[in-house]
Design a protein that fits this description.
Elements (H helix, E strand, L loop, with lengths): L3 H13 L3 E6 L5 E3 L2 E2 L6 H7 L7 E5 L5 E6 L4 H7 L4 H9 L3 E4 L3 H9 L4 E4 L5 H16 L10 E4 H10 L3 H24 L6 H14 L4 E2 L4 E4 L20 E6 L1 E3 L2 E2 L2 E6 L6 H19 L9 H16 L7 H7 L41 E4 L2 E4 L12 E4 L2 E6 L2 E4 L7 H8 L3
Parallel strand pairs: 1-7, 5-6, 7-8
Antiparallel strand pairs: 1-4, 2-3, 4-5, 9-12, 10-11, 11-14, 12-13, 15-18, 16-17, 18-19
Helix pairs in contact: 1-2, 5-6, 8-9, 10-11, 11-12
Bound molecules: glycine and manganese (II) ion (2 copies).
Length: 435
Amino acid sequence: MKHAPYSDRRRRVCERLGDGVAIIPTAPERLRNRDAHYPYRFDSYFWYLSGFPEPEAVLVLIGGSEARSILFCREKSEEREIWDGFRYGPTSAAQAFGFSEAWPISELASRLPQLLAKRNTLWHSLGHDAEWDRRLGEALAALRADNRNGQQAPGEIRDLHGLLDEMRLCKDSHELDCMQRAADIAAAGHARAMRACRPGMAEYELEAELSYEFRRRGASGHAYTPIVAGGVNACILHYVANDKLLSGHALVLIDAGCEIEGYASDITRTFPVAGRFSAEQRAVYEIVLAAQAAAIAAIRPGARFADYHHAAVRVLCQGLIDLGLLTGTVDAAIESEAYKPYYMHRTGHWLGLDVHDAGAYRTGSGDDDWVILTPGMTLTVEPGLYLRPSDKVPEHLHGIGVRIEDDVLVTSAGSLVYTHAPRTVGEIEEVMHHE
Ligand code: GLY
Ligand code: MN
Ligand code: MN
């Protein structure tokens, strides 16, 4: 059944709610300007437990002996469907998505107090959305006001996101399948941009190649605003203007991934605009590539989340010493953080429904209190070096910015890199070689 992965997750959540009730709203539609909306994107937590794509929907999960799932959604409407397209309506939604019950969203406010009544715990993430905090506050107040009739509000409110974040850290086979498809399409987009690249093009022309490949292959679009950064723009970490011309002497850095059934891929490639690395560009590139290889080798079950960052930093520091940008030993550079002007971000993050996915990184505030890697976790490995022009950087290295980013699954044997875009100097030059 198509809804099986989602109903299985709901069942697992219900088992953990105790005698409680969880309220999980999806994201609202948001206005872009006047009456035009941003493209709709559901809430990731709601999607994780429902697979239901429409706005104006709320999932209610009841734990304990009466465990069940209830969807509130928009009603069928001939008028609205003429303007906006198909909507399921409660009856077909319950059938198609496997909910125990479904009701019109217009009945939520009147039904909410009864759903909360006599439950010990309300599971919700307070402070996430002020409007929902208010609505739940009102439902609780209505119950308390009715206590002479035997009504009782939950005595405890617990953080639902904490529970779901823990589940979302380890991906199930349905999620891994979506993520592999998102990775394959993003890799094809990067290869397409490499093949299309010519000196004198604008950065946005390469962005268009990626967008075309993503949509052509059925992705819903970009998973985040893409970065196409020629030359020194690569040294601006969140460069998204993508509006400059590409010099034939420069590298271009592209950080772009797509979304499939809500799941993100996140790939960065850096390549020479004219198709051949110069000696300086190659020297920097090979250091970052070696740092990435060392980081990937440090990913295995039982390792701490920070270990692969430390492995990358070690190789980058040696590289910075070899390039003449740092002096002294690797240990001293790590200790003093002398590498930070050239490598100021961490080496990766969890990846999933959100590009910077849900899930804790630390288990406490101690230096070693990092989450331990476990099979099923997915993360990015994205070391870089950013040599902004300055009097500390030799002139022949000015403006070289390189990042290489791939997506990795923690497996029982170690790790699996599942993004397959051209990555080595040889692979990139071969793909870009055009008559
Ligand atoms: N594309 C966002 C990141 O690499 O973290
Ligand atoms: Mn990333
Ligand atoms: Mn990225």
